Structure prediction request, 204 residues.
Amino acid sequence: MSCILSCDLGFGPKKSVKKTVREVYDMTIRELKVWAKLDCDHFTQYRSSWLEAEHKDKELVLKVYIEMDLCWFTLEDAIRKMRQHFERPVNQFLPTLGYYMASELLIEILEGIHYLHSLIPPIIHRDVKPKNILIKGSPYGRFIKLADFGLATEHLKESMSHTQASGTDKYMPPEVRLSRYYGTKADMYSIGVTVNELFNFALH
Prediction:
């Protein structure tokens, strides 16, 4: 089963955007190129994509359509549901069953990131967070599907370091936030923050 996502790339007299249409288009194409390489059960499967244009309110709107696996909810949703189900506020220990469930999800997250970092060249996701980790909810195969490769980049050689501050601030390691050199380990910091939420701890 699959679903289709759409992304508007609009411009015109009424449009005020932080990025040009070309910049957004290039970023989308870059994401699709990375995504299309990941033919593996750890990730939402890219199926196809196409571009359509239409005029709306004196504005040209370009829409990028992406067909992908249908996933029912995110890890962010799952964390919230676990807290409700086990009646645990933030920073209160989960029961044994809750820890077992969280551990199983964590194993699949780590396997997906390990796969990215083991590619030649390795890929740094750069935006690992509960909202970008999807759950397919199927009794077959894996539950966890890593998604959203808009900020992903190839780590072309071991000596290569990146300086661009990319990602979501809360999950961003200090070296990335400060635009210092970083590599694949940046994803591990993001996973660490995600683990704190998954196991119901609060960072202070």
Remarks:
- The longest helix spans residues 96-118.
- Residues 2-69 form one domain.
- Residues 10-18 have pLDDT under 50 and may be disordered.
- The two ends are 41 Å apart (CA to CA).
